[in-house]
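Same chain as my last thread, 116 residues:
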Amino acid sequence: MSATGELPHPDRADLTLTGVLFALSDPERLAIAQQLVDGPLDMAACSVTDPTMPKSTRSHLMKVLREAGVIRNEPNGRRRLLSLRRDDLEARFPGVLDAVLGAADPLPVPESALAD
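reply #2:
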């Protein structure tokens, strides 16, 4: 990792269909991708369906998505900004991202959100 906090991201040409599908095959990773459909989010704003999940597990989920080329994880001040690599995925595998996200079950609402 560089001194600027940049993380490595695969080039568009290096994205593989099996890697992308594997990354999206986990319900928690899929939920993260679904949250990014409408635009970038601060990493802290991305939630997982299990509020008791350790931070290290959340970080690993995002690492798998980044290394597969599904998301971009970039520094934004003292925080990190997550975004869906829609253009790259559409260029490599037309229609796949929309097909997977469209076929997925809706995001479950975490119990903590229901308490309000």
